[in-house]
Structures are given as C-alpha cells and as structure tokens.
Design brief:
77 residues, cytoskeleton, MZT1, 3 helices, mainly alpha
C-alpha cells in the first residue's frame, strides 16, 4: 500500500505533466523542470505576472546577447 507521501509525489507529478501538456500547446518552451520551479516560486508567494515578465525579459536578453564561439583551444573568441 503506497504511503501518503508517495500519493502526494504522484499527484505532484501528474500536475506537472498536465501543466507541461498545456505549456507545450501554448509553445512556452518551458520543460518540466522549469514548470516545477515556477510552480514552487508561485506557491511561495512570487507574483505569477512578475515571474512571466522576468522569464520573457531573460529570454529576450539571451537571444540578444552575442554568441561566443569556441576556437580550437576551447577558448571563447
């Protein structure tokens, strides 16, 4: 017989699976780990709108940042 903590873990996995399906349909590019972290932050009081804004801003910065290329020595150029 599964323990209560096993039931809670299973329920949490199912929630993340459902959120991942929704996330995929909405093309958010968030994986299960990202979603799990977002849920945890929101459960701990982070404003969901602020979190979404930060994620969007970080993605913009990441795509705008110049890409480092590696030379033969494995050093960035």
């Amino acid at each position: 017989m599964p323990s209560q903590s096993d039931d809670k873990r299973q329920a949490a996995r199912e929630v993340i699976d459902i959120l991942h399906e929704i996330s995929t349909l909405l093309n958010t590019a968030l994986d299960r780990t990202d979603l799990s972290l977002c849920v945890s932050l929101i459960e701990n009081g982070v404003n969901p709108d602020a979190l979404a804004t930060i994620i969007k801003d970080m993605r913009k910065e990441a795509t705008a940042a110049p890409r480092l290329t590696m030379n033969e020595d494995g050093l960035g150029e």
